[in-house]
């Protein structure tokens, strides 16, 4: 039986229509029908239109449900504009998603990122779902509120058992991201739960991209490296319970205008700089020359850089240097790469509760894990998590 909070949400949390039109404005939520993040925050706002061959989504980055602060970062209104291809096409080769920053946008105007966190606290870059730092809808705040996974109940219509999932988001390459239930054939005679083909090698507490490997699996329920497929109805992605949760790479060509600032953020009154552009994979010549300079085996360096076994992972030179046991600066120098612009110092560590009391549980919620209990939505759509924690994990 579905939890009560899912049924309550499903009754009213509907997109404007279930079917995608040539300009899919009807796929996105009418966020004005919802109570929003709370009395202390602006109301959520989203505008969707199409300009020739481009889907344009403008949002203020405020969720349509109550904001529960999980990280030390506040919720800020950030006006963003997302521009995606309206008629996406598969690229000759997949491309990596960004290590940090926008990978796409959900139908409520909230961006989603990749399946890793940043480098704070050190050494970082772990799986934020595994590390239990997400709210019940798999979102949290950094520079802006964003998702690392998508929960269909937080976004979708009243889906009956046996029905395929609706669109929950769009990737920066323009391909739609559907919920977890997929048609197994073109006629949709059978509906299956989509499964990731990535295999877990170790706990992804840090350097999550090194904790998983893509291994193709047989069966209509299994997805490709990028977490998508095409059973005859056109290529698209699906969300999955396990890594990479949303996208593992881009199957199409990502737009460079996915998440640019449409205006100075309202809450801060001035422009902010986003993360630096992603590092590009070094060439074979760069790797060979760097291996000679560092006095290490070329194949070992290529493996540490995630360039072997057909991997299409985002570059993380800090993790590569840690794997090799050398300084990051030495690795970048050997590869002939410029020094990276240093970002902000990052959020301070969370303070322990006064008196040593156990905090209320806010972790591992919003998944379909039957042991992830203690979290849900009240009738007025407040995310609540009240079960005491056990090693920062519910259940």
Low-confidence stretches: 1-21, 263-275, 342-395
Shape: globular
Which structural class should the secondary elements be placed in? alpha+beta
Whole-number tally of structural domains: 2
Pattern of helices and strands: HEEEEEEEEHEEEEEEEEEEHHHHEE
Largest sheet: 6 strands, mixed
Strands of the widest sheet, in order across it, are 6-5-9-10-16-15
Strand residues, percent: 15-25%
**Count of runs of 4 or more consecutive helical residues:** 6
Computed over alpha carbons, the radius of gyration is 21 Å
Total DSSP E strands: 20
Task: State mean pLDDT (0 to 100 scale).
Answer: 81
* CA(first)-CA(last) distance: 18 Å
Mind explaining what this structure looks like?
- The chain is of the alpha+beta class.
- The protein has 2 domains: 1-267 and 343-395, no CATH class; 284-335, no CATH class.
- The protein is 12% helix and 18% strand.
- The strands form 7 sheets. It has a 6-stranded mixed sheet, with no helix packed on it.
- The longest helix is centred in the C-terminal third of the chain and has 11 residues, at 284-294.
- It starts with a helix and ends in a 10-residue tail after the last strand.
- Residues 1-21, 263-275 and 342-395 have low confidence and may be disordered.
């Amino acid at each position: 039986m579905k939890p009560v909070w899912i049924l309550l949400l499903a009754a009213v949390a509907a997109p404007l229509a279930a079917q995608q039109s040539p300009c899919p404005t009807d796929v996105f939520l009418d966020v004005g029908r919802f109570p929003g993040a709370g009395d202390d925050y602006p109301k959520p706002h989203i505008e969707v239109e199409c300009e020739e061959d481009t889907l344009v989504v403008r949002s203020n980055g405020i969720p349509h449900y109550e904001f529960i602060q999980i990280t030390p970062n506040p919720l800020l209104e950030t006006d963003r504009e997302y521009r995606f291809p309206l008629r996406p096409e598969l690229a000759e080769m997949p491309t990596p998603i960004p290590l940090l920053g926008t990978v796409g946008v959900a139908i409520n105007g909230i961006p989603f990122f990749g399946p890793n966190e940043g480098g704070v606290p050190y050494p970082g870059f772990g799986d934020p779902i595994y590390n239990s730092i997400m709210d019940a809808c798999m979102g949290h705040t950094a520079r802006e509120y964003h998702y690392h996974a998508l929960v269909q109940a937080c976004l979708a219509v009243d889906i009956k058992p046996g029905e395929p999932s609706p669109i929950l988001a769009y990737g920066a390459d323009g391909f739609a991201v559907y919920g977890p239930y997929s048609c197994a054939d073109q006629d949709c005679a059978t509906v299956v739960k989509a499964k990731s083909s990535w295999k877990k090698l170790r706990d992804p507490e840090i350097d999550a991209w090194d904790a998983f490997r893509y291994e193709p699996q047989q069966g209509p329920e299994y997805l490709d490296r990028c977490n998508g497929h095409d059973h005859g109805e056109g290529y698209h992605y699906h969300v999955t319970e396990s890594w990479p949760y949303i996208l593992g790479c881009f199957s199409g060509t990502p737009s460079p205008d996915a998440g640019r600032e449409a205006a100075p953020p309202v809450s801060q009154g001035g422009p902010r700089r986003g993360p630096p552009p992603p590092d590009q994979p070094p060439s074979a010549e760069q790797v060979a020359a760097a291996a000679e300079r560092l006095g290490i085996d070329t194949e070992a360096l290529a493996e540490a850089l995630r360039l072997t076994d057909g991997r299409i992972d985002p570059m993380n030179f800090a993790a590569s240097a840690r794997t090799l046991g050398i300084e990051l600066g030495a690795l970048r120098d050997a590869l002939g790469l410029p020094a990276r612009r240093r970002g902000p110092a990052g959020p301070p560590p969370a303070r322990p509760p006064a008196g040593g009391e156990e905090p209320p549980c806010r972790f591992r919620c919003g998944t379909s894990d039957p042991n992830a209990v203690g979290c849900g939505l009240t009738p007025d759509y407040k995310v609540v998590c009240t079960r005491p924690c056990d090693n920062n994990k519910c259940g």
